[in-house]
Task: inverse folding
């Protein structure tokens, strides 16, 4: 299977050769789509990984052990649930209601409905929505 | 004879761990089931809360003196300007001040957040130098531990009701009410409604100067009426205003705050603002207070203002209840329009719960206002006039 994954590197881990591990240890094929690894800032790497599902899962567990945060990318945007304050400002611009607040006033995201228009990225006041693809 | 309780009685019950404390959402059901009288008898305190963006926010800081000493005039914190017109090493950092290098993506609100978060902040300052304060320049790092006083001071917060916003033009608008898509396709609003402090005490009977509150995760106080305090507006039969009315000036210790209850906000093509979590307890002194506390979203109305009109008063396109707004869809001039909030109801609920826990545990006592607010205050506008013109 092919899976797009966004790796987030906390500051101190920016230098971990994770791509190397994916290729050498897990024999996965890695197609880097975008990357930004700064010496000082938080780094990220967006890549399309190809291989068997279980192997990808194992590799992701390994990444987690190395303190690299992994996010499976299903649409053009990614919501950081830690940062999100559930205000609902993003739902104002989402014309297809892919973003909505449920009965507990918690933000829900329906990937199937999302049009990848990315209007919500700039509409989020706490910058909890990232434009990933 | 109606039921009446005093602050002292309620505080005694809090101290002995017997106080019955519920949130302003929970009280609605209690009153529905038991009636006003019984609810007044049984419940001692009702907690209200809000978590919304408030531009009129900031913090006073005292850096401590360097050696040789300096009377700081041009002050920057992480490249965000802080006010240099106070005493030597005092400053006020305003939430909406934008970074000179990053613009509104990093503003005063972010500096305040990073301070609470314990991060090191770059402080640069310039001065002309005086005989008693010879130093002319400094470039150093401070954090919440190294500075002396650090207190949040909000000249305005807790708006008692607020406008709902729509955009009837054919251009997308970027406002402090969020991104407003064109052609009346969305209405945004900002309130915690039935949980909102000043909607539960509309005539300021218990919320006044000195009221002890929850702010940013710690204890704080109402220090004054907020700026643009406009209590003298038309009110409905429940004493509720349908337009922005009362406001509160709030103070609290930044050193004890938590990043869980304060968040910097960025409104696209508008600027920086700050989300602040506030919780205010309301003592159930009598049945009149309970009647106000029992009010629900369907009884609280607001007005929909057209934000595409930039000059003159914004036209009002209709009135709507918060229950309708919360449903996600309303009708404006016969057309179905989606609605979206800006203030977090979820966070407000968390705060009301947290404050409830504090009061129940006996660690948070109620403070009777030292002075109450006027109910007939009006506002002045600002004319651009020539000197001496009457
Ligand atoms: S990208 Fe567009 S469609 Fe998708 S969630 Fe955001 S606003 Fe909605
Ligand atoms: S606008 Fe941002 S913070 Fe608010 S609900 Fe949407 S993702 Fe969460």
Result:
């Amino acid at each position: 299977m092919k899976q797009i994954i966004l790796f987030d590197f906390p500051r101190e881990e920016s230098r971990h050769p994770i791509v190397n591990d994916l290729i050498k240890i897990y024999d996965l094929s890695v197609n880097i789509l975008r990357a930004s690894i700064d010496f000082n800032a938080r780094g990220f790497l967006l890549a399309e990984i190809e291989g068997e599902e279980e192997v990808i899962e194992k590799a992701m567990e390994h990444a987690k052990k190395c303190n690299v945060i992994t996010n499976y990318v299903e649409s053009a945007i990614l919501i950081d649930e830690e940062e999100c304050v559930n205000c609902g400002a993003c739902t104002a611009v989402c014309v297809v209601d892919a973003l909505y607040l449920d009965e507990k006033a918690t933000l829900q995201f329906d990937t199937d409905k999302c049009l990848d228009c990315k209007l919500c990225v700039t509409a989020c006041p706490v910058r909890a929505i990232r434009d990933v693809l | 004879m109606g039921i009446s309780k005093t602050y002292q009685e309620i505080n005694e019950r809090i101290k002995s761990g017997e106080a019955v404390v519920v949130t302003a959402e929970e009280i609605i059901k209690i009153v529905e089931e038991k009636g006003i009288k019984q609810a007044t008898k049984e419940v001692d305190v009702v907690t209200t809360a809000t978590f919304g963006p408030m531009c009129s926010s900031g913090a006073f800081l005292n850096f401590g003196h360097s050696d040789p000493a300096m009377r700081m005039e041009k002050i920057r914190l992480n490249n965000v300007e802080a006010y240099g017109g106070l005493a030597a090493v005092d400053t006020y950092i305003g939430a909406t001040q934008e970074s000179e290098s990053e613009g509104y993506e990093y503003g005063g609100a972010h500096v305040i957040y990073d301070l609470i978060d314990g991060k090191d902040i770059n402080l640069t300052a310039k001065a002309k130098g005086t005989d008693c304060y010879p130093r002319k320049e400094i470039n150093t790092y401070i954090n919440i531990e190294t500075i002396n006083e650090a207190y949040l001071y909000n000249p305005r917060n807790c708006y008692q009701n607020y406008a709902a916003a729509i955009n009837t033009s054919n251009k997308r608008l970027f406002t402090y009410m969020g991104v407003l898509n064109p052609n009346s396709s969305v209405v945004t609003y900002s309130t915690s409604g039935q949980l909102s402090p000043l909607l539960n005490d509309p005539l300021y009977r218990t919320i006044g100067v000195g009221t002890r509150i929850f702010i940013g995760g710690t204890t704080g106080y109402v220090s004054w009426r907020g700026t643009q305090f406009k209590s003298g507006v038309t009110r409905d039969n429940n004493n509720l205003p349908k337009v922005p009315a009362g406001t509160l000036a709030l103070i609290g210790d930044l050193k004890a705050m938590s990043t869980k209850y304060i968040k910097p906000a960025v409104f696209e093509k508008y600027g920086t603002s700050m989300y602040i979590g506030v919780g205010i307890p309301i003592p159930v002194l009598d049945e009149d207070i309970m009647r106000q506390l029992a009010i629900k979203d369907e009884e609280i109305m607001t007005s929909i203002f057209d934000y595409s009109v930039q000059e003159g008063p914004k036209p009002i396109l209709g009135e709507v209840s918060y229950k309708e707004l919360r449903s996600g869809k309303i009708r404006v001039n016969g057309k179905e329009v989606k609605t979206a909030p800006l203030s977090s109801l979820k966070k407000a609920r968390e705060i009301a719960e947290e404050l409830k826990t504090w009061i129940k545990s006996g660690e948070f006592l109620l403070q009777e206002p030292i002075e109450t607010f006027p109910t007939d205050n009006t506002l002045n506008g600002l004319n651009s006039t020539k000197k001496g013109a009457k």
Summary: Chain B has a mean pLDDT of 95. Residues 7-54+153-360 of chain B form one domain. The helical segments of chain B are 7-15, 26-42, 108-116, 197-200, 287-293, 322-326, 345-360.
